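Hey,

The postdoc asked me to send both predictions to you directly instead of through the lab channel. I've kept everything plain text so nothing gets mangled by the mail client. Protein one:
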Amino acid sequence: MEKLKIKILALSCSNRLNSDIAWMCQYALKVVEKFGRRVSDVADYETKFIELADKDLKPCINCNRRPCTLGGGRNWEGGLLPCQPCPIKDYHQELGPEIQKADGLIIGAPTSLGTYNSRFRLMWEAISRGREMLFGEHWLQHNNRLPVGVLTCADDGPGSGVETCLNDLNITVRFLETMPVSMVHGAWLFRNPSWRPVPEGGPYTVKNNRDSLRWLFSMSRRVAEYALMLKLTKEVLGDVFKREFMGRYHEPWGADETWAWRRLDKEDEEYMMSLPIEMKLPEWG
């Protein structure tokens, strides 16, 4: 079997260039590359880092053009998907294909008011636009089960909000059917600590929080591991993966598709419907 090609993409959703989050994203990719060298007999890893601080990302206007696509309805092998092009033209037209080509995704967003910041929200709304059909590819084939790891940073101290931020990130990325794979909540680093001098007079950056780098290692390795396992699964299962593992949770796209997969076989259905359900309340004492 030929070596697998694995691509991991990291996105910095900070509003500042060269920020703590950008540093953490690049550190995470170095962890991925180290893992790649350890499994180089079976896979070649490629990494890419994108800063979103200076990218044009516009908010979704929640229009009625659903499902939305970048270029309007296209013929798909399962049938015609009727839709109109997204009216918003911004960086999502370039970012979408980058995510589509990725086997794993690392997303960094600073903690703001106890949750993720505004630029992450803009980015994830942009990813939702055009996801049904992206340059001729059915969206479930790149979003569905895409391994995602999340990271954040904040000033140290009570009420930093990093755990709620990471939980919110995981919930939000799951909504587009990606697969959060971070260890625990995800990775976080503090700018240690912002209200008193840093040892040795260093700058207030996440580099001072070296004891917590283990969370970056855990999250990054898991993204790399799951990306490899999923890619291998796709290679082994081939058409079975596309036919039975992808697109089974949405309405049929072709005229010959049925809802049969959502029904038990006749014998099992009859058996389940014949099982009694006790309605009598239990007697206590």
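Protein two:
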Amino acid sequence: MAKPGRQKSRTWDHFRPVSGTSRMRCTRCSTEVTARRDRMQKHWDGCVVQGPRESEHSLIAKPGDRRDGDPRWNQPGRKRTATWRHFKDSPDHKGKARCDKCGYELSARVDRMKKHLIVCRPELGIEIESAAKDVKPEPSPREPEQQTPQNGLERANGRRLTESDVRALNRTLGRLILRHNIHIDLLDDPELKNLWQGMVYVPPSRQSWMSVIEDLWRMEKSKSETFVRRSRRLTLVTDACREPKTPHFASFIAVNENGESVMWDMSPVSADVTVENVGEGLKMRLNRLRQLDKVIAVTTDGGIMMNSVRRALEKDPAYEGVIFGHCLVQQTRKMAKDLLIAGGDLWTKLKTVERICSQIVASSEAQEFLRTFEGYKEVEMQGVNASEWNSVLYCLIRITQNRPALKTLVRRGLSMGIGFEEKEAIADEDFWLAVEGIMPVARVFCFLQGLSESCELTSGCVAFGFYWIRRIVQASKNFTDVLRESMTEAIEERIRLALGMEAYVSWYLDPRLRGAGMKDRDVHKTCVAASDMAVRLGIFGDEDVENWKDNLFLEWHDYKDGKGSFDLSSCWSPAVTRKPERYFHKFETFH
């Protein structure tokens, strides 16, 4: 006779198996738990305790409460509170609720939903316990109501804002203005007003805002100066905006090879911008940047507007020595700005620029200029279509438009042949024969190199041209693997000089760290290689590179875990060490 098995616990009687899974469903609240006795017992103890505590006067909705027969109120299992009358389940995110009035999504918790309804639908008169404690009781009919002075510093729930609260709020908004380059005149914008929704808050005056922003700028400047002192060559320092609210202050600061601080202010000209307020806008930024050695004001208009701004600033002796440059079209400005931002997704941006380039090259205004290149399109290339080749010519077409002198220079440059500086250093004749096999690439490379050295072309345009030249070189049949590698190294050197070293390292790392399926060990090796490159290129000294490597590794881990957007620019500050104990815990097994 077989020995009877272990008696099954009664806990299993309160659960039903879920078909197709190894989970059990509670018969009381329909919650699914793992099919283990301890897990089910723990759930059942909590489920049984919570049940009797609900009184018949609670906000538990019942089927039939809604006459419209909403299926949300007829689902089996535990009934939802009346707060759910104003929300629906989010179709995109599990565990989220969507407000029926404004469409805002939030956590599907009753307390969170009630707090949202207090702001979104005040006519419902919903109160929560924590807010009710702070609300002042209404005066009795016999006692006259005491008049509280309204100075614009009270919350909607009655709690008075202290002076420290006001200062903190001002600094928060000031950081928002600096981070997104919001024009100070746009503080009445509806999007900004949403920041203090539910608060009777009066923003400071223009003078107060200027003082707040001055303080914040001084703090950012001190951080940047610390970073600049530790750099030895061309370095992008601060604060290029990715998507500015207004384009008037899209700027960044760089330190050139001579150690001079340089500000580029890329201010596009639109119909609602006059000479006066463009000049005043530049003056306002220059007042905060008098410590800079050079200021390069870049506008999308190369004619009267730039000259007017130049004359307006030259009248002020404080701006002696200001150097002005300009680029001709808004696409060029956007391309240069996108390429020069460290940590951006260059591949996505380059595809967008490629589409713009193809449209420009196909336009009628470019046909006459393209006749110069008709003989060069017959080069045998594998995997390079006409649009990619035309993208290389985009810079040449745009910078010569309406500029006969530059057009002559272009034609002269195309007839110069190779002329690489590396020709003397590279003695391999086969290398140069292969280069002559793709003569148009060599000539365009030579021309872009010459323009970059004479400051006739923005560094973003140069880097963009070099990028596509590298694509063509790698796809050409005329190169062996060794020669292609040598040519690619020479081109990447030009990209590095054009973009600046920080942006180059980010541009180098971005596709590698975003690669799917990379293991921690591979990522650690990549970070070590990048840190060696950063030391070799002069971005960091030996004492700072370890912190930067730690930050880089943690940034990738946060991105992999879904906690961040993988912004490499957050790793560039060597003064900030992001919890080193976390770092060593994650990769101590790699040493």
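Summary for protein two, as requested: Residues 206-229 form the longest helix (24 residues).

Thanks,
C.
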